[in-house]
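User: I'll paste a sequence; please echo it back and then give the predicted structure.

Assistant: Echoing your sequence first, then the prediction.
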Amino acid sequence: MASADLPEAASGIGLAGARAGEVSKTVDEAPTIAVEVVWSAAPRALSTLVLRMPAGATIAGALRATGWTGLAAAAQGGEAFAASGLSTAVWGRARPLTHLLREGDRVEVLRGLVADPMDARRVRYEAAGGVKALRQRGYAGQKGQKEQKGQ
């Protein structure tokens, strides 16, 4: 396609070699991606930050870019990060600090569990009064209760 065949506006701005519908980028424009970093440093406290990172960025780079002092161990490497009791995930799936990020990824910084979930449930159950309290509220039936109704 010759420059004479292009509209005047296109030939005037240096797009003489471009085809219709194409957008030309200059070489100095580095592609970037948007990622969201989420961290709960304490129970019921959530910090969220949306970052523009260069394409090819890793989880470790995103954590450094947040500037959050509690995540400084990420800059030292995976062993120091794990020793601090933290791990990372992307959209709920565990990923190492070296994982390459993509556009729209949600990086989650995970704390270690303070209590075993099964033990915590057992404590709540016993604090509520156990099976006796559940029966009084109608959540648990008596043994053989269904058999007695049928007779």
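The chain has two domains: 32-111, 117-150. The chain has a mean pLDDT of 75.
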